[in-house]
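Budget justification aside, the reviewers requested a transparent look at the raw inputs and outputs of the sequence design task funded under Objective 1. We therefore reproduce one unedited record. The lines immediately below are the structure tokens for a 308-residue chain.
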């Protein structure tokens, strides 16, 4: 499906998930409010709002750069005009001149137009990352493949929806404000449940209280979908946790060396994560591929926990 409001890109953007959210919400009743407590690009919530699946959208964003984009996109009527002028300028240049123009633009606008800066950086950076270099003009058709000619029109559409969109700073405040039966939450927290999770390198605001998030969702009145990367580390707070003790039989040699010759594990306790006491809970592994077969990766899956 066409996603006219996939404007800002961010590491882990969920454009590929939009068809799954639409299917999850298919049929009456439609939610009155959609909330994305970890917004980033907010492509899921914006797409649902644009499709008429909800009356309003509440997003939360802590990253100061992304927040600058939302302030510009929803509060500055001239933002799309500046984007249109820049678009015309960059595509008027010869391909070999565009890369230098992009680099100079990033340096010039970072302090005086931070909303535009993060939009441009997200589009020319690798996978929407703020750090780690930029795509070269020869790579994947350069800026032409990463900067749509209609980006200003998408910004105009977003601006026209501004009265239906509320931007908050804290994810938990956003969830609390929308805690009612006619709400739907798309919850895509940064993958930072352990020190080795990739979220720590991808995001400036990576650390959240995942246990608190699960407790809030367990009592949340509306429908929701929670996404995590499919790995043992991030699945642990959600899935079965087994506490056990191990009894070992050890042989001690004359020199004092110990050798384990037998071991036996005894189950002490079996518990499930707090979300599994919620009626209607379900989990699945979803292939990261959009409705048109593009976006995400055919080789990757995400774990999705849902409450109907």
């Amino acid at each position: 499906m066409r996603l006219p409001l996939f404007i800002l890109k961010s590491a882990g953007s969920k454009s590929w998930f939009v068809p799954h959210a639409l299917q999850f919400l298919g049929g009456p009743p439609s939610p009155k409010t959609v909330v994305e407590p970890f917004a980033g690009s907010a492509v899921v919530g914006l797409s649902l709002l644009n499709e008429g699946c909800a009356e309003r959208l509440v997003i939360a964003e802590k990253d100061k750069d992304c927040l600058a984009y939302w302030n510009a996109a929803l509060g500055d009527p001239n933002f799309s005009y500046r984007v249109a002028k820049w678009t015309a300028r960059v595509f008027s240049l010869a391909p070999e001149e565009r890369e230098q123009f992009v680099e100079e633009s990033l340096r010039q606008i970072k302090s005086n137009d931070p909303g535009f800066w993060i939009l441009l950086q997200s589009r020319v950076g690798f996978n929407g990352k703020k750090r780690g270099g930029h795509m070269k003009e020869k790579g994947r058709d350069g800026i032409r493949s990463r900067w749509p000619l209609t980006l200003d029109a998408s910004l105009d559409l977003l601006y026209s929806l501004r009265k239906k969109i509320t931007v908050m700073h804290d994810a938990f405040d956003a969830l609390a404000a929308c805690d009612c039966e006619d709400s739907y939450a798309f919850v895509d927290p940064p993958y930072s449940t352990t020190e080795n999770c990739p979220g720590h390198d991808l995001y400036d605001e990576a650390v959240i209280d995942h246990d608190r998030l699960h407790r809030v969702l367990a009592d949340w009145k509306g429908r929701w979908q929670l996404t995590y990367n499919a790995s043992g580390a991030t699945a642990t707070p959600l899935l079965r946790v087994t506490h056990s003790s191990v009894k070992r039989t050890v042989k001690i040699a004359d020199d004092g060396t110990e050798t384990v010759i037998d071991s036996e594990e005894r189950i002490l306790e079996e518990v499930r994560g707090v979300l599994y006491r919620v009626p209607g809970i379900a989990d699945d592994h979803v292939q990261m591929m959009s409705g048109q077969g593009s976006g995400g990766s055919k080789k990757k899956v995400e774990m999705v926990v849902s409450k109907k």
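The first strand starts at residue 33 and ends at 36. The chain has two domains: 15-236+275-307, 241-272. Computational costs for records of this kind are itemized in the attached budget.
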